[in-house]
Predict the structure of PFU domain-containing protein.
Amino acid sequence: MADSTITEDAIDASSPSSIQNIKSYAISQVLEAHKTGAMTLALTHLGTLISGGRDGTVQWWCKSREKYVKALAFTHPKTLVVHSIAYAHLEDGWRLFVGRKDGSIAVYASGSYEPVQIFKENTQSVCCLHVNQNATHMLSGSCDSNVFIFPIAELNKSSFTVLKCVGHTLSVWALASFPNVPDIYLTASADTTVRLWNRNITVAIFKGHKDVVRALAVLSKDCFLSAGNDGTILHWDIPSSSILGKFSTCAHNFIYSMTVSDSHILTTGENGTLEFWAMLHAKSGGKLTIASEKVIRLPSASTWDAKVLPNSDIAIAGSDGRIYIMSNDPERQASQELRRKFDAEVASKKKGIKENTVTFKVEVDDGTNQLDLHYRKGTDPGLCAQEFIKENNLPMYFLEEIIEFIKEEVPEASL
Protein backbone atom coordinates (compact mmCIF):
# COMPACT_ATOMS: atom_id res chain seq x y z
CA MET A 1 0.00 0.00 0.00
CA ALA A 2 1.41 3.35 -0.93
CA ASP A 3 0.74 6.10 1.57
CA SER A 4 -0.49 8.25 -1.28
CA THR A 5 -3.68 6.16 -1.29
CA ILE A 6 -4.69 7.96 1.88
CA THR A 7 -5.55 11.51 0.90
CA GLU A 8 -7.70 13.94 2.79
CA ASP A 9 -8.65 17.53 3.29
CA ALA A 10 -6.15 19.56 5.27
CA ILE A 11 -6.77 19.16 8.99
CA ASP A 12 -4.95 21.00 11.73
CA ALA A 13 -4.08 18.21 14.15
CA SER A 14 -1.10 19.95 15.71
CA SER A 15 -2.93 21.13 18.82
CA PRO A 16 -5.11 19.12 21.22
CA SER A 17 -8.80 18.89 20.38
CA SER A 18 -11.17 20.82 22.60
CA ILE A 19 -14.85 20.54 23.42
CA GLN A 20 -16.96 23.69 23.43
CA ASN A 21 -20.65 24.54 23.18
CA ILE A 22 -21.67 21.21 24.68
CA LYS A 23 -25.39 21.77 24.21
CA SER A 24 -24.93 22.42 20.48
CA TYR A 25 -23.73 18.92 19.56
CA ALA A 26 -25.95 17.14 17.04
CA ILE A 27 -25.55 14.34 14.53
CA SER A 28 -23.29 15.17 11.60
CA GLN A 29 -22.72 11.85 9.87
CA VAL A 30 -23.42 8.14 10.31
CA LEU A 31 -20.73 5.82 8.96
CA GLU A 32 -21.79 2.26 8.12
CA ALA A 33 -18.41 1.02 9.26
CA HIS A 34 -18.64 -2.63 10.33
CA LYS A 35 -21.05 -5.51 9.80
CA THR A 36 -21.07 -6.05 13.55
CA GLY A 37 -19.89 -4.01 16.53
CA ALA A 38 -17.47 -1.13 16.03
CA MET A 39 -15.23 -1.84 19.02
CA THR A 40 -12.37 0.64 18.99
CA LEU A 41 -11.18 3.92 17.45
CA ALA A 42 -7.84 5.64 16.87
CA LEU A 43 -6.65 8.88 15.28
CA THR A 44 -3.58 9.42 13.12
CA HIS A 45 -1.27 12.43 13.38
CA LEU A 46 -3.15 13.93 10.40
CA GLY A 47 -6.58 13.42 11.93
CA THR A 48 -7.55 10.34 9.93
CA LEU A 49 -10.01 8.17 11.86
CA ILE A 50 -9.35 4.42 12.18
CA SER A 51 -11.89 1.89 13.43
CA GLY A 52 -11.70 -1.78 14.38
CA GLY A 53 -14.69 -4.10 14.54
CA ARG A 54 -16.04 -7.48 15.49
CA ASP A 55 -16.29 -8.27 11.78
CA GLY A 56 -12.50 -8.62 11.70
CA THR A 57 -11.84 -5.47 9.71
CA VAL A 58 -9.90 -2.27 10.31
CA GLN A 59 -11.24 0.74 8.41
CA TRP A 60 -9.50 4.04 7.62
CA TRP A 61 -11.71 7.13 7.28
CA CYS A 62 -10.47 10.36 5.68
CA LYS A 63 -12.12 13.76 5.35
CA SER A 64 -13.32 14.81 1.91
CA ARG A 65 -15.45 17.92 1.52
CA GLU A 66 -16.13 17.98 5.27
CA LYS A 67 -17.37 14.36 5.29
CA TYR A 68 -15.62 11.16 6.27
CA VAL A 69 -15.20 8.59 3.50
CA LYS A 70 -13.66 5.13 3.64
CA ALA A 71 -10.12 5.23 2.29
CA LEU A 72 -8.66 1.86 3.21
CA ALA A 73 -9.55 -1.45 4.84
CA PHE A 74 -7.53 -4.27 6.36
CA THR A 75 -9.37 -7.59 6.58
CA HIS A 76 -8.51 -10.31 9.07
CA PRO A 77 -9.66 -13.95 9.08
CA LYS A 78 -13.30 -14.23 10.22
CA THR A 79 -12.37 -15.81 13.54
CA LEU A 80 -10.06 -12.92 14.44
CA VAL A 81 -12.35 -10.28 15.89
CA VAL A 82 -10.56 -6.93 16.27
CA HIS A 83 -10.79 -5.79 19.88
CA SER A 84 -8.21 -3.00 20.02
CA ILE A 85 -6.02 -0.77 17.87
CA ALA A 86 -3.21 1.72 18.50
CA TYR A 87 -1.46 4.06 16.07
CA ALA A 88 2.13 5.31 16.13
CA HIS A 89 3.70 7.99 13.93
CA LEU A 90 7.43 7.39 13.45
CA GLU A 91 10.20 9.02 11.43
CA ASP A 92 10.10 6.20 8.88
CA GLY A 93 6.30 6.17 8.60
CA TRP A 94 3.33 4.96 10.60
CA ARG A 95 2.63 1.73 12.45
CA LEU A 96 -0.80 0.37 13.30
CA PHE A 97 -1.10 -2.27 16.01
CA VAL A 98 -4.22 -4.44 15.89
CA GLY A 99 -5.20 -6.58 18.89
CA ARG A 100 -7.17 -9.69 17.99
CA LYS A 101 -9.38 -12.28 19.65
CA ASP A 102 -6.80 -15.09 19.56
CA GLY A 103 -4.25 -13.05 21.53
CA SER A 104 -2.19 -12.02 18.53
CA ILE A 105 -1.21 -8.47 17.58
CA ALA A 106 -0.93 -7.69 13.86
CA VAL A 107 1.43 -4.85 12.97
CA TYR A 108 0.82 -2.83 9.81
CA ALA A 109 3.27 -0.28 8.41
CA SER A 110 3.49 2.36 5.71
CA GLY A 111 3.63 0.71 2.31
CA SER A 112 1.98 -2.64 3.07
CA TYR A 113 -1.54 -4.05 2.91
CA GLU A 114 -0.54 -7.09 4.96
CA PRO A 115 0.84 -7.30 8.51
CA VAL A 116 4.60 -6.84 8.58
CA GLN A 117 4.78 -8.58 11.96
CA ILE A 118 2.52 -10.63 14.20
CA PHE A 119 3.19 -10.85 17.93
CA LYS A 120 1.87 -13.77 19.95
CA GLU A 121 2.96 -12.96 23.48
CA ASN A 122 -0.61 -12.80 24.79
CA THR A 123 -2.54 -16.07 24.87
CA GLN A 124 -6.08 -14.70 24.97
CA SER A 125 -8.01 -11.81 23.45
CA VAL A 126 -6.09 -8.52 23.36
CA CYS A 127 -8.54 -6.18 25.09
CA CYS A 128 -6.48 -2.99 24.84
CA LEU A 129 -3.41 -1.47 23.21
CA HIS A 130 -1.61 1.77 24.02
CA VAL A 131 1.26 3.75 22.47
CA ASN A 132 2.97 6.25 24.76
CA GLN A 133 3.26 9.93 23.85
CA ASN A 134 6.71 9.71 22.25
CA ALA A 135 5.85 6.45 20.45
CA THR A 136 8.77 4.63 22.04
CA HIS A 137 6.71 1.79 23.51
CA MET A 138 3.50 -0.09 22.81
CA LEU A 139 1.62 -1.88 25.59
CA SER A 140 -0.88 -4.71 25.26
CA GLY A 141 -3.45 -5.88 27.82
CA SER A 142 -5.28 -9.17 27.54
CA CYS A 143 -7.89 -11.52 28.93
CA ASP A 144 -4.93 -13.64 30.05
CA SER A 145 -4.40 -10.94 32.75
CA ASN A 146 -0.92 -10.04 31.50
CA VAL A 147 0.53 -6.84 30.07
CA PHE A 148 3.43 -6.78 27.61
CA ILE A 149 5.64 -3.78 26.81
CA PHE A 150 7.12 -3.68 23.30
CA PRO A 151 10.01 -1.35 22.28
CA ILE A 152 8.67 0.19 19.06
CA ALA A 153 12.04 1.49 17.82
CA GLU A 154 13.53 -2.01 18.04
CA LEU A 155 10.73 -3.99 16.42
CA ASN A 156 12.54 -4.13 13.07
CA LYS A 157 15.62 -5.70 14.63
CA SER A 158 16.25 -9.43 14.54
CA SER A 159 15.82 -9.57 18.32
CA PHE A 160 14.38 -7.29 20.97
CA THR A 161 13.24 -7.54 24.57
CA VAL A 162 9.54 -7.60 25.45
CA LEU A 163 8.75 -6.97 29.11
CA LYS A 164 5.98 -8.98 30.77
CA CYS A 165 4.00 -7.36 33.58
CA VAL A 166 2.49 -9.97 35.90
CA GLY A 167 0.19 -8.99 38.73
CA HIS A 168 -3.43 -8.67 37.67
CA THR A 169 -5.59 -11.73 38.26
CA LEU A 170 -8.27 -11.06 35.63
CA SER A 171 -8.56 -9.42 32.20
CA VAL A 172 -6.69 -6.16 31.61
CA TRP A 173 -9.04 -3.62 30.04
CA ALA A 174 -7.18 -0.30 29.98
CA LEU A 175 -3.65 1.08 29.70
CA ALA A 176 -2.15 4.54 30.13
CA SER A 177 1.22 6.30 30.27
CA PHE A 178 2.51 9.63 31.56
CA PRO A 179 3.75 12.34 29.17
CA ASN A 180 7.50 12.88 29.47
CA VAL A 181 7.77 10.25 32.21
CA PRO A 182 9.36 7.19 30.59
CA ASP A 183 8.77 3.63 31.78
CA ILE A 184 5.86 4.51 34.11
CA TYR A 185 2.49 3.00 33.19
CA LEU A 186 -1.01 2.40 34.52
CA THR A 187 -3.10 -0.71 33.93
CA ALA A 188 -6.74 -1.40 34.85
CA SER A 189 -8.35 -4.78 35.25
CA ALA A 190 -11.48 -6.83 35.80
CA ASP A 191 -9.95 -7.69 39.18
CA THR A 192 -11.22 -4.18 40.19
CA THR A 193 -7.72 -2.75 40.68
CA VAL A 194 -5.45 -0.28 38.93
CA ARG A 195 -1.70 -0.90 39.02
CA LEU A 196 1.18 1.54 38.62
CA TRP A 197 4.29 0.07 37.00
CA ASN A 198 7.91 1.08 36.60
CA ARG A 199 8.75 -0.99 33.56
CA ASN A 200 7.49 -4.43 34.62
CA ILE A 201 7.62 -3.87 38.39
CA THR A 202 4.45 -3.00 40.32
CA VAL A 203 5.04 0.08 42.47
CA ALA A 204 1.47 0.77 43.63
CA ILE A 205 -1.98 -0.84 43.62
CA PHE A 206 -5.12 1.31 43.68
CA LYS A 207 -8.24 -0.28 45.16
CA GLY A 208 -11.55 1.57 45.10
CA HIS A 209 -13.79 0.24 42.35
CA LYS A 210 -16.40 -2.41 43.08
CA ASP A 211 -16.45 -3.89 39.59
CA VAL A 212 -14.41 -4.18 36.40
CA VAL A 213 -12.19 -1.15 35.70
CA ARG A 214 -12.51 -0.34 31.99
CA ALA A 215 -10.94 3.09 31.42
CA LEU A 216 -8.02 5.29 32.49
CA ALA A 217 -7.06 8.91 31.92
CA VAL A 218 -3.89 10.61 33.16
CA LEU A 219 -4.34 14.18 34.40
CA SER A 220 -0.80 14.87 35.66
CA LYS A 221 2.22 13.06 37.03
CA ASP A 222 0.43 12.88 40.38
CA CYS A 223 -3.22 12.31 39.43
CA PHE A 224 -5.33 10.11 37.19
CA LEU A 225 -8.93 9.04 36.62
CA SER A 226 -10.36 5.54 36.40
CA ALA A 227 -13.84 4.34 35.43
CA GLY A 228 -15.66 1.09 34.95
CA ASN A 229 -18.61 -1.22 35.35
CA ASP A 230 -19.59 0.22 38.73
CA GLY A 231 -20.66 3.38 36.90
CA THR A 232 -18.22 5.67 38.68
CA ILE A 233 -15.22 7.83 37.86
CA LEU A 234 -12.58 7.86 40.60
CA HIS A 235 -10.03 10.67 40.93
CA TRP A 236 -6.76 9.30 42.35
CA ASP A 237 -3.76 10.85 44.08
CA ILE A 238 -0.74 8.78 43.10
CA PRO A 239 1.72 9.64 45.92
CA SER A 240 -0.77 8.59 48.62
CA SER A 241 -2.68 5.98 46.56
CA SER A 242 -5.85 7.62 47.86
CA ILE A 243 -9.17 8.59 46.28
CA LEU A 244 -9.64 12.34 45.94
CA GLY A 245 -13.15 12.14 44.54
CA LYS A 246 -15.86 9.74 43.39
CA PHE A 247 -18.41 10.70 40.73
CA SER A 248 -21.37 8.67 39.46
CA THR A 249 -22.68 8.48 35.91
CA CYS A 250 -26.12 9.73 34.95
CA ALA A 251 -26.20 7.76 31.71
CA HIS A 252 -24.50 4.37 31.65
CA ASN A 253 -24.99 1.17 33.60
CA PHE A 254 -21.32 0.49 32.82
CA ILE A 255 -18.65 2.91 31.62
CA TYR A 256 -16.67 1.41 28.74
CA SER A 257 -14.38 4.25 27.66
CA MET A 258 -13.24 7.64 28.91
CA THR A 259 -11.64 10.50 26.98
CA VAL A 260 -10.32 13.74 28.49
CA SER A 261 -10.36 16.91 26.40
CA ASP A 262 -9.44 20.22 28.03
CA SER A 263 -11.94 20.76 30.84
CA HIS A 264 -14.29 17.96 29.81
CA ILE A 265 -14.53 14.19 29.98
CA LEU A 266 -16.42 11.97 27.55
CA THR A 267 -17.63 8.51 28.52
CA THR A 268 -19.38 5.76 26.59
CA GLY A 269 -21.23 2.80 27.97
CA GLU A 270 -23.82 0.07 28.08
CA ASN A 271 -26.91 2.17 27.38
CA GLY A 272 -25.84 3.49 23.99
CA THR A 273 -25.07 6.97 25.23
CA LEU A 274 -22.33 9.58 25.15
CA GLU A 275 -21.98 11.47 28.42
CA PHE A 276 -20.24 14.84 28.78
CA TRP A 277 -18.69 15.65 32.15
CA ALA A 278 -17.35 19.03 33.24
CA MET A 279 -14.14 19.16 35.28
CA LEU A 280 -14.33 22.06 37.71
CA HIS A 281 -11.53 23.20 40.01
CA ALA A 282 -12.57 24.94 43.22
CA LYS A 283 -11.08 28.40 43.70
CA SER A 284 -9.85 27.54 47.18
CA GLY A 285 -7.76 24.43 47.57
CA GLY A 286 -8.02 23.46 43.92
CA LYS A 287 -10.18 20.39 44.57
CA LEU A 288 -11.46 18.82 41.36
CA THR A 289 -15.19 18.31 40.93
CA ILE A 290 -16.52 16.26 38.04
CA ALA A 291 -20.18 16.73 37.11
CA SER A 292 -22.33 15.21 34.38
CA GLU A 293 -23.32 18.00 32.02
CA LYS A 294 -25.08 16.44 29.02
CA VAL A 295 -26.11 13.02 27.71
CA ILE A 296 -26.55 12.22 24.02
CA ARG A 297 -28.51 9.08 23.21
CA LEU A 298 -27.63 7.08 20.11
CA PRO A 299 -29.43 4.29 18.22
CA SER A 300 -26.88 1.61 19.17
CA ALA A 301 -27.46 -0.59 22.21
CA SER A 302 -23.95 0.15 23.50
CA THR A 303 -21.25 2.70 22.74
CA TRP A 304 -17.77 1.23 22.95
CA ASP A 305 -15.38 4.09 22.29
CA ALA A 306 -15.21 7.81 21.49
CA LYS A 307 -12.58 10.16 20.12
CA VAL A 308 -12.51 13.96 19.91
CA LEU A 309 -11.52 14.93 16.38
CA PRO A 310 -9.20 17.83 15.51
CA ASN A 311 -12.13 20.10 14.61
CA SER A 312 -13.90 19.31 17.93
CA ASP A 313 -16.35 16.89 16.31
CA ILE A 314 -16.74 13.61 18.18
CA ALA A 315 -16.64 10.08 16.74
CA ILE A 316 -18.49 7.35 18.67
CA ALA A 317 -18.18 3.62 17.97
CA GLY A 318 -21.46 1.73 18.32
CA SER A 319 -22.31 -1.90 18.97
CA ASP A 320 -24.44 -1.77 15.80
CA GLY A 321 -21.27 -1.45 13.70
CA ARG A 322 -21.77 2.22 12.98
CA ILE A 323 -19.59 5.21 13.78
CA TYR A 324 -21.58 8.29 14.74
CA ILE A 325 -20.01 11.71 14.11
CA MET A 326 -21.40 14.49 16.31
CA SER A 327 -20.65 18.16 15.64
CA ASN A 328 -21.26 21.45 17.42
CA ASP A 329 -20.81 23.40 14.18
CA PRO A 330 -24.10 24.01 12.32
CA GLU A 331 -22.19 23.99 9.03
CA ARG A 332 -21.09 20.39 9.61
CA GLN A 333 -24.30 19.07 11.14
CA ALA A 334 -26.52 16.76 9.14
CA SER A 335 -29.51 17.75 7.07
CA GLN A 336 -32.88 17.99 8.77
CA GLU A 337 -33.90 14.76 7.04
CA LEU A 338 -30.96 12.80 8.48
CA ARG A 339 -31.47 14.37 11.90
CA ARG A 340 -35.14 13.31 11.90
CA LYS A 341 -34.13 9.78 10.89
CA PHE A 342 -31.51 9.69 13.65
CA ASP A 343 -34.00 10.90 16.27
CA ALA A 344 -36.55 8.34 15.08
CA GLU A 345 -34.03 5.51 15.49
CA VAL A 346 -33.20 6.67 19.01
CA ALA A 347 -36.91 6.77 19.88
CA SER A 348 -37.44 3.34 18.34
CA LYS A 349 -34.57 1.89 20.35
CA LYS A 350 -36.01 3.32 23.55
CA LYS A 351 -39.43 1.84 22.76
CA GLY A 352 -37.88 -1.50 21.79
CA ILE A 353 -35.94 -1.70 25.03
CA LYS A 354 -39.13 -1.11 26.98
CA GLU A 355 -41.07 -3.72 25.00
CA ASN A 356 -38.28 -6.30 25.27
CA THR A 357 -37.75 -5.86 28.98
CA VAL A 358 -39.27 -8.41 31.34
CA THR A 359 -39.53 -7.98 35.10
CA PHE A 360 -39.32 -10.73 37.70
CA LYS A 361 -39.76 -10.82 41.44
CA VAL A 362 -36.65 -12.21 43.13
CA GLU A 363 -36.90 -13.42 46.71
CA VAL A 364 -33.98 -12.72 49.03
CA ASP A 365 -33.48 -12.95 52.78
CA ASP A 366 -35.27 -16.31 53.02
CA GLY A 367 -38.25 -15.01 51.09
CA THR A 368 -38.94 -12.10 53.41
CA ASN A 369 -37.98 -9.54 50.78
CA GLN A 370 -38.86 -9.37 47.08
CA LEU A 371 -36.88 -7.29 44.59
CA ASP A 372 -37.66 -6.40 40.97
CA LEU A 373 -35.18 -7.75 38.43
CA HIS A 374 -35.43 -6.18 34.96
CA TYR A 375 -33.96 -8.23 32.11
CA ARG A 376 -33.76 -6.97 28.53
CA LYS A 377 -34.12 -9.83 26.07
CA GLY A 378 -31.09 -10.39 23.88
CA THR A 379 -28.60 -9.06 26.43
CA ASP A 380 -26.05 -10.92 28.53
CA PRO A 381 -27.79 -12.42 31.61
CA GLY A 382 -24.47 -12.26 33.45
CA LEU A 383 -24.28 -8.48 33.07
CA CYS A 384 -27.91 -8.18 34.12
CA ALA A 385 -27.23 -10.25 37.24
CA GLN A 386 -24.16 -8.17 38.11
CA GLU A 387 -26.13 -4.95 37.78
CA PHE A 388 -28.97 -6.34 39.91
CA ILE A 389 -26.54 -7.34 42.65
CA LYS A 390 -24.84 -3.94 42.56
CA GLU A 391 -28.11 -1.99 42.68
CA ASN A 392 -29.40 -3.96 45.65
CA ASN A 393 -26.11 -4.35 47.55
CA LEU A 394 -26.34 -8.14 47.49
CA PRO A 395 -23.43 -10.54 48.10
CA MET A 396 -21.64 -11.73 44.95
CA TYR A 397 -22.33 -15.37 45.81
CA PHE A 398 -25.87 -14.78 44.47
CA LEU A 399 -24.45 -14.21 40.97
CA GLU A 400 -24.64 -17.73 39.51
CA GLU A 401 -28.03 -18.36 41.11
CA ILE A 402 -29.49 -15.20 39.56
CA ILE A 403 -28.00 -16.01 36.14
CA GLU A 404 -29.60 -19.45 36.23
CA PHE A 405 -32.89 -17.93 37.35
CA ILE A 406 -32.90 -15.58 34.34
CA LYS A 407 -32.13 -18.46 31.97
CA GLU A 408 -34.97 -20.52 33.42
CA GLU A 409 -37.46 -17.66 33.04
CA VAL A 410 -36.21 -16.58 29.59
CA PRO A 411 -35.02 -19.69 27.69
CA GLU A 412 -33.45 -17.67 24.85
CA ALA A 413 -31.06 -16.14 27.40
CA SER A 414 -29.27 -19.51 27.45
CA LEU A 415 -28.43 -19.33 23.75
Remarks:
- The first helix runs from residue 336 to 355.
- The chain has two domains: 18-334, 357-414.
